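so my prof wants the structure for this chain in the tokens format not the other one, which i didnt know existed until like an hour ago. anyway here's the sequence
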Amino acid sequence: PSSKANLVPILVIVLLAAALSRLAYLNSRPPSLRDGRGGYGDTYTYFRLARNLAASGRFSNSAPPGPYTPSCYKPPAYPFFLAGLMKAGFHETGASGYRPFRIAQALGSSLTAVWVCLAAWLLFQSRAAALAAGLLMALSPFDIHYSQALLSDWLGAMLMAAALAAFTAALQYRAAGWMVAAGAVMGLTILTRPVMIGYAPVLGCLLVLRSGGGRRRRNLAMAGLFLAAAAGVVGVWTFRNYRATGLFIPVSIGGKSVGLLRGTWETPANWSWRGLPEEDFKDPRELEAARSLLAEYSRATRLGPTTKAVEVNRRLEALARKRIARDPAGYLQLCLARLPMLWWNHKVRIYLDPDPRGLWVFPWLALWLCGLALVRGRVADMLALWLLPAYVTLMHVPVHVEPRFSLTAFPAMAILGGGVVAPS
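here's what i got, hopefully its the right format
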């Protein structure tokens, strides 16, 4: 679009709004502490991985001084980010010591709004749309809240926004270089939030949908470049996992199998990281098997070896699928009951710090639904944005759900919101 220089003041406004809102929130609401770090159990694992990386260069969940058993339990991007800060001089010295990490995250999260602003400008060729989208993201209560949590969710959202901006630039300028960049950043997003691995093929298919007449071959080539770049970035880590364990593990073992098993009983009423409600296991032998498998899983992910964790994962998934097959209608009802937990439930009892109140998300969802009107004229371009919240929902609701899991979808909703609020 023309008048590129006129976008600079808008980018500055959006960046300042994002940075100041996040820093103000950090200063006004010191986080509660669990194990000295924060209100989430995953934080401990992330910091141990980062500490081992910074000290030994090895991606391991082992306790120092070793031996450092290779770990595939968590995805690598966020631990590498933390390790980089540690190498730059950031120290873990208790509650006040983690403040520099949170400040770095708040500033990094501010870039999410910048990428959203750029994507909206490229897509709608409107400064008003760019400003509206950027401010929606800059002032998003969820993004602000999780920018200071020592978790990977803010990083996944920021990288997803960058991937969408590069993807939009590639469509706008028909530039192969931008498409490679979009694929590479999508790969980094997957290395942060592995659940997004299925969204890369979705974007590739949408590129093919843009084919028409003499452009068919070109768009197929662009889709190939995007997918090859994403696969190349992820493939580096996949190769590392294979060399370290002898197993094909694309990104990480994660907690999908445990989450799927929990998804066969979990509701907002009994939500827990460790809960195993006896009333949901009619067969005492199945209950004992579930308890045993969960205990084995916990030991294997902490102590290794990875082959043991993978084997336990398979048994957990088999048990989950057996329970689902026994009562598919009941399982579907549980999935629907968990839907509010992903988008607007703010009363997760086990969280030390409650999420922002849920009502604010309804305007966002309304803008997302209004985005359907924008899809009609530019199907492939707009569906890339409109499908992201649907994809995130479908991936998370069948398993263990936490409100923070929806964060990756908000950049797409903000971009669409810019187009709805201020169409070009």
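also thought this was worth mentioning. DSSP finds 17 helices and no strands in the chain.
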